[in-house]
Design brief:
binds adenosine-5'-triphosphate, two-stranded antiparallel ribbon, 53% helix, single chain, seven-stranded mixed beta sheet
Length: 432
């Protein structure tokens, strides 16, 4: 990163996508109309300086943020969700863009690791409540001083030198989720947590402060770490600095689970390369399952509930845990018909199948799971419910049975054409 001329990032902002610049210009007009000071803040400013794409705008207003957001939403035809208690609002725009707008605020932490008390404050207060110097900069969007960098804590210099630095000694104690955040940014940008911050981080870990954070907040931060590109480095660093005891005392992430995570990474990129049109796989869930590898089913269930994972997420992890080794053994058997392979894999999520593939080198299992993704899973029948009704079969539980028998026959290559499907249905009906 080159040095910033006159502490102004106007030139860098000019390189932003057109749509982003339009939104910033609308925010500028909104600020002028309301006579309010408005600033871009946080990760957006950090990434503009780094020249990294970050499309969600984060704006702090030294006035009523909700009023600002309402006017901004009116001008952009966006839909607004406000949180009156915090003086914040989110404006969702066409194309999936989001603009977060907040009243400048001050935070105090009367109890460590618990949510802060919030009151109205200045821009400086708002920047002082942030996690790291690199995330505590603002850039003015007012016409008079557009792009002027507000950097009270040396964020630009830390960005230049690649340092993660907390703003004050109690930062990790106030909010221990910042421990995971420090690791996230360190490994994302290839930075280092500077020595004093690292010492403070280790002290907070030694005092068991992570365990005092509400599980939902921990889950949210951990999932962000697991969504990072260099996820294996994230996991390694978390293991080194905090361990995974905050997930479960037995979530030790030993070498076998680490090797599984490495294989998962290979399988996930294989899947993405080979099936670009398939629905995306939630890679974070795959890595979470690796972290829970040592736990039994009950412990996994209990952990998922404590972290309030959605029911579907819990099911996807458990389906892998339950299927596990026995399914790999079954899929390795010599003679297995396509319908049987389908029967084994169809109840599983894609994430669970990726985990199974990562666990085995058996060529037959690997080929069969690939065939499942490539052929079996997308196979459609020509016949529909209408055809069954036309044949005089009343809607009911038989439909399911008929469809699955015809699909099995199709998977096995026993029927191919619409006529053959119909002929088979008639045969099944007679048998019924
Ligand atoms: P990303 O690029 O991953 O979205 P971000 O910096 O935009 O990173 P967010 O979690 O969206 O991260 O938070 C936006 C900003 O809010 C941060 O840049 C930081 O200034 C502030 N922030 C977020 N979480 C905390 C926290 N736990 N403590 C203090 N400040 C925080």
């Amino acid at each position: 990163m080159a040095d910033l001329k006159n502490k102004n990032i106007r030139q860098r902002m000019k390189k932003l996508p057109r749509r982003t610049l339009q939104l910033i210009s609308t925010a500028q007009d909104t600020a002028a109309a309301l006579g309010a000071g408005a600033y871009l803040v946080g990760g957006f400013v950090r990434d503009v300086i780094l020249g990294v794409g970050n499309f969600d705008l984060d704006i702090v207003v030294e006035a009523d943020g909700i009023l600002f957001a309402q006017e901004f939403a009116r001008r952009t035809s966006g839909s607004i969700v406000s949180h009156t208690r915090f003086g914040t609002a989110s404006v969702a725009l066409e194309g999936g863009l989001k603009v977060d707008i907040a009243t400048a605020r001050k935070e105090t932490y009367p109890v460590p690791a618990c949510l802060p008390q919030v009151s109205r404050g200045t821009l400086r207060d708002d920047l002082a409540r942030r996690d790291f110097t690199i995330n505590a900069m603002a850039a003015s969007i007012s016409a008079g001083d557009f792009g002027l960098l507000v950097d009270f804590f040396g964020g630009a210099e830390d960005l230049r030198r690649g340092k993660i630095r907390v703003l004050h000694p109690l930062s990790f104690r106030d909010d221990p989720t910042r421990i995971l955040r420090a690791i996230r940014f360190e490994k994302r940008y290839g930075f280092t947590i500077e020595p004093l911050s690292l010492r403070l981080l280790k002290q907070a870990v030694a005092q068991g402060l992570i365990q005092r954070v509400g599980p939902h907040r921990l889950r949210d931060e951990l999932v962000l770490n697991l969504k990072e590109k260099r996820v294996l480095e994230q996991l390694k660093r978390i293991r080194e600095l905090t361990g995974f005891g905050f997930i479960h005392p037995r979530a030790a992430f030993p070498p076998a689970a680490q090797a599984l995570a490495v294989s998962c990474q290979r399988e996930l990129s294989w899947f993405k390369r080979k099936f670009p049109r398939h629905r995306g796989v939630d890679s974070w869930l795959v890595y979470l399952a690796c972290l829970l590898e040592e736990l039994n089913n009950d412990e996994v269930r209990e952990t998922c509930r404590r972290f309030a994972l959605r029911g579907g997420d819990e099911k996807r992890i458990l389906s892998y845990k339950k299927a596990g080794g026995s399914l790999i053994r079954r899929l390795a058997q010599k003679s297995l018909r396509p319908s049987e392979i389908f029967g084994c894999l169809e109840p599983l999520s894609y994430e669970a199948i990726i985990l199974l593939r990562a666990r085995t080198k058996d060529a037959r299992v690997r080929k069969r799971t690939e065939d499942f993704f490539e052929i079996y899973n997308g196979m459609k029948l020509y016949i529909s419910g209408d055809d069954l009704r036309r044949l005089g079969i009343a809607p009911g539980p038989y439909y399911r049975k008929i469809f699955s028998e015809v699909l099995a026959a199709k998977l096995n290559g026993e029927v191919r054409t619409p006529q053959e499907e119909l002929a088979l249905i008639k045969k099944i009906r007679e048998a019924l």
